[in-house]
């Protein structure tokens, strides 16, 4: 039995102690925001916060997590109101979205250690890979979130400013089978 805290909930896993933390979170706890990307720790899609550090969960076993505090993207903010989540939305960072939870968790650990990182620090610290190439907007979003976390800016919640809320909520017509779809 392996015990640690996940998103402020005490958890006991009845899994092989060598099970990667990634699979315990995804399969046993249904926290699917933590993504499997490469399995070697290079891409960062599986990044979670372990005791305040950004950790690649595919490379950490649950035995190594014993007694720690783990935070996943789901535990960052239940209503997606964390300044990083708001800044990523406001800056239009997200494209396919696959890598974003890991990037946000890495950025969260950075901002916990450094409340005012410069661009070089952000680029050196956030080593997560993004196949969509969101890096310029990524730096802007992390800088903006840092300002918000220092109380220097308020980031409005909701859709991006350039998207009309009526368009964002517009219903998609149902597909009719056999009609050329």
Mean pLDDT: 90
Major beta sheet summary: 5 strands, mixed
Kindly report the name of the CATH homologous superfamily of the largest domain: [2Fe-2S]-binding domain
Task: Using the coordinates shown, work out and report the CATH topology of the largest domain.
Answer: DNA polymerase, domain 1
- The tally of structural domains comes to 2
Shape: globular
Gyration radius over CA: 18 Å
Task: Give the CATH level 1 class of the largest domain.
Answer: Mainly Alpha
Question: Structural class of the helix and strand makeup?
Answer: alpha+beta
Strand segment count? 5
Quaternary state of the chains: single chain
Distance between the termini: 50 Å
Uncertain runs are: 170-176
Strand order of the largest sheet: 2-1-5-3-4
Order of helices and strands: EEHEEHEHHHHHH
Work out the helicity level.
25-40%
What is the tally of helical segments?
8
| Proportion in β-strands | 5-15%
CATH architecture descriptor of the largest domain: Orthogonal Bundle
């Amino acid at each position: 039995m392996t015990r640690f805290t996940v998103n402020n909930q005490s958890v006991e896993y009845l899994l092989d102690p060598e099970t990667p933390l990634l699979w315990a979170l995804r399969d046993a706890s249904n926290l699917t925001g933590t993504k499997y990307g490469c399995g070697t720790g290079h891409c960062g899609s599986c990044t979670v916060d372990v005791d305040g550090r950004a950790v690649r969960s595919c490379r950490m076993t649950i035995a190594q997590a014993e007694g720690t505090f783990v935070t996943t993207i789901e535990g960052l903010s239940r209503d997606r109101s964390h300044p990083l989540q708001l800044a990523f939305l406001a800056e239009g960072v997200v494209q396919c979205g696959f890598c974003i939870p890991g990037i946000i968790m890495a950025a969260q650990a950075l901002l916990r250690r450094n409340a005012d990182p410069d661009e070089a620090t952000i680029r050196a610290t956030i080593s997560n890979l993004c196949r969509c190439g969101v890096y310029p907007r990524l730096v802007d979003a992390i800088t903006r979130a840092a300002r918000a976390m220092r109380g220097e800016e308020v980031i409005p919640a909701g859709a991006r400013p350039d998207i009309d809320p009526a368009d964002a909520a517009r219903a998609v017509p149902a597909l009719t089978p056999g009609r050329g779809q």
